[in-house]
Description:
Layout: E1 6-12, H1 16-27, H2 32-35, E2 39-46, H3 50-54, E3 63-64, H4 67-71, E4 76-81, H5 89-98, E5 102-105, H6 108-124, E6 129-130, H7 142-148, E7 154-160, H8 163-175, H9 179-188, H10 197-200, H11 203-217, E8 227-228, H12 236-244, E9 247-258, E10 261-272, E11 284-291, E12 295-302, H13 306-326, E13 349-359, H14 364-374, E14 379-388, E15 391-398, E16 401-402, H15 403-414, E17 419-428
Parallel strand pairs: 1-2, 1-4, 2-3, 4-5, 5-6, 8-10, 10-17
Antiparallel strand pairs: 7-9, 7-11, 9-10, 11-12, 13-15, 13-16, 13-17, 14-15
Helix pairs in contact: 1-13, 5-6, 6-11, 8-9, 14-15
Amino acid sequence: MSENHVIKVALLGLGTVGTGVYKTLQGQKDEMKFKIGADVEIKHILVRNLEKAAQKVENPEILTNDWNQIVNDPEVSIVIELMGGMEPARSYMLQALQAGKHVVSANKDLIAADGQELLENAQEYGCDFLYEAAVAGGIPIIRPLKQCLAGNHITEVMGIVNGTTNFILTRMTQDGMEFEDALKLAADLGYAEADPTADIEGLDAGRKVAILASAAFNSRVVFEDVYTEGITKITATDILYAKEMGWDIKLLGVARNTPDGIEARVHPMLIESTHPLASVNDSYNAVFVVGDAVQDTMFYGRGAGELPTASAVVGDVFDIVRNILADCCGRIGCTCYKTLPVKKMDQIKSKYFIRMQVEDRFGVLASVASVFGNNSVSIAQVIQKRKRKDSAEIVLITDLVKERHLKDAIKVFEGMSIIKEISSLIRVY
Ligand code: NAP
Ligand code: HSE
């Protein structure tokens, strides 16, 4: 192979990740021709604001705000989409693939909704479409699921895939902070975005779970299939009780391949303090994968940020360069060859942590136990503490129960005068 191959690429977006990719490619400049057999040259960078972007690059002449200049340039082999959002990112990626250009993207919002269409276009036009950075930033997980673990039937993928919420819950656990204070700290330190809704309501994690489940179970799961619940109702008191009972509270994305369908959900969850995911703290992410051959595996690292995310993007670009040189592009495309049903939450079984305020008098605990018993809910652990003069706080953990049965019991409690408040209802792993 000659040593002077040059693969020309275009970057769409020069924000956090785009700048990281620019820097990472520069950092690999001297080694890449030995590592992958070619030099990667950024020929164009698409931005909205040319002046702002000019401060970030050594060669501002490569900046443009004209997409046509890129899609119509036959020298551009790879388009790296780092603009985010649905449009025009979707149209640009489809046009690039249809023009025979390979595409790399970190755009989880778009891939969780339209991944199938993008992968089908890639296949039709003989291109690669890679998106390692879309889930858990710098942590390799899509490639392991599609390639290294392909010899398994994967039964479960579960993880902490949102750094902002993990940082908030860590501060609540380690410093006893309440949610609002921890969120403010996350914003002050630059973890939480100006509008933190997608993070704290579990939407960002939900998109990642859709992408993970599709890759793990070979069946398409889209964001709309994923049940999402955020961390805004978690209190320092819940975390304290959980700790006392041997658990930590984490925002977990859970995808399971069960005989009667796929479970795909994101919600706060109590996890045993001895589980490897319980020790994943601050803004770190981790994904736990269970396969029938490999058994338990865990992938850990930085789930976001300029350089960690760029690491995954540049890994994809280098893979495509190798495929181009070996003339084997489109080798690994869509791996969803099954159509499995996705279960509704009502069909799912879970254990529950329930914290409730009740009248502090004899017979109340027996009444609570009887409502649970009448609704097929069995209790595994109970703590009762007197809070005020006439009110007690009961905290209990149930055995595995169908979500439907638990909700029926809660409805009964809501109509009982001895139950003053159901303060928390959190699933248990
Ligand atoms: P960002 O900082 O907001 O940067 C977006 C860039 O795209 C900006 O340079 C923006 O230009 C440009 N842009 C947006 N719309 C454009 C348009 N229509 N035409 C031309 N340029 C446009 O975003 P980011 O954090 O780098 O995220 C990029 C993608 O990576 C998103 O899909 C995100 O979900 C994903 N991701 C991010 C992280 C992370 O840690 N940040 C981690 C994993 C995945 P202007 O500045 O001129 O508006
Ligand atoms: N907002 C995300 C997080 C990073 O907090 O993990 C981008 O995926």
